[in-house]
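Quick note —
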Amino acid sequence: MQDGTQFGVQQEMRVLILLLCLFSWPALADCVREFKTLERGVNRDRIWVDRVFAEAGCRLNVLPAADRILDRWWSLKTGQTDLLSAATPLPERSEFAWFSVPYTQEKVVLVVHRAEALTLKIDNMADLMASQRTVIGPHFGYYGPEWEAAKPQLQQLGRFLSYKKWKDAREMLWQKPEQVLLTVEDSALEIVARPKPALVILPTVLYQADLVLMFSRKTVTVEEVELINAAIARLLVRGVSPHDG
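Predicted structure written out below.
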């Protein structure tokens, strides 16, 4: 986990690198086609993707959300969709996808009832495991190496409840105040937006990684990825970020 100073320095370096790339990229052709993506249901992410494609001058066709995360990856692998947003650039995914330049960092956080937050002290994954709490966690997806190790242990202990959509996770946590919900920050912000019952995000960050747009190798060219990269760079250099949603 990184402190605020380290993260701030990394953000400044990222913008500097993007600025250098922006001036080194060759002149790009106009965007001449429509890109298909899947709805994610997270407001901040939706706004950011719309801004990127508007900046690039590209049309975006947002298809209904997939019921399962596995279906999201399959749609990209088979070329049914052109891109997915808020993706982690894992090496195994490069077999079927191009990655955009990083535009922010994803944080894995914990959500609890406000009353529980007053006494619950969790600073890392070890604390979460030792807490004896049942964890409401993602059914599928990569949330860091520590979660990869912890999830099967929680399953064996009968302390794991899975969710596929953040709205389902929110309902599960409302019904069981003693449980802890593990999710990514953008979903967590949506989850705690409702006032009753009061849910809060703990200050602990369990995992942090770059986020990118992920493009299908079947339908998207390198030149098109560079067009989107240039749009991302222009937005970040102007101070427009995914956190402005």
